[in-house]
Design a protein that fits this description.
This protein is mainly α. The protein is built from eleven helices and two strands, in the order αααααααααααββ. It has a domain of 98 residues. It is 63% helix and 6% strand. Strands 1-2 form a two-stranded antiparallel sheet. The longest helix is centred in the last third of the chain and has 38 residues. The chain is flat and about 95 Å long. 20% of the residues are buried.
Amino acid sequence: MAVFAAAILASPCASAQFADKREAFTQSYNERPDSTAAADTSDKLINFQEIFGGLAHKRTMRIGTMFGTSVVLPGASQIYHRQYWKLPIVYGGMGAGITCGIVYNNRYRQSGLESDKTASVLGFVGAGLFYYASLMDGAICYKGDRNPYPGRSTIYSILCPGLGQAYNGEYWKIPIYVGGIIGSIHFLDVNNTNFIRFRDIYRESQEAGYSGPITADQAKYYRDIYRKYRDYSWLALGLFYLLQVIDANVFAYMTDFEVTDKVTASLCPSMILPDNNAYAFTPNAPAAGLSFGIRF
């Protein structure tokens, strides 16, 4: 036994194994290479210094910060990109649309004409399109340090489901996510329509003189069923939307992930110290064993 233990300890594979363990225990993770990294803005949810510094062109603004600022302050991304000529288009289009919507909405209240109502809706929709275009333009014009850029891919998916997958070159995923979102919207509409139908029938059944073919208990049952299915449709819609955003971000990061065929396996004798002496034949005594490792 002593001869066998000595042979194990003298094995080069065993010594390499223990050397790797020492390195693992002495290695430190998440090291900050310099003092400036200690103030990394990624640790902060809102960094006004980064926002105002970026808008003043004194420092670089991350694409996520730029997008969030543009959501609250339309045109901020155009200011950051020094594309000032786009600001009159953004604010002019949004202002014209909002003004048109308010004016025709007031006319609709007075006249009751459907044409005024349609013009009011189109005005507000037009303002929303100019706002949407300003956000998309900011993401397109942002200069990243890699292609595909994960931040741009994420914002594309937020603004237009499936666009992030197209940007990553994974076109086969678009029918899956877009189909799931469209299907969820379809079932949401169907279940909500049936919920409203049986809800109204149930309300009518509570009135005196009701003689409909559906009883109050039946109406109440189907009302609750379709309300539950409607809630499930909302959940499915949110999951498909969230999954395609996460997918676009993750696979944009993994585009340069290298997978090689160089996989090695090693089987070496080793000495094992028991964690619990209650299960050891000899307390505090090492036991002979084998270690199996895979490196890829």
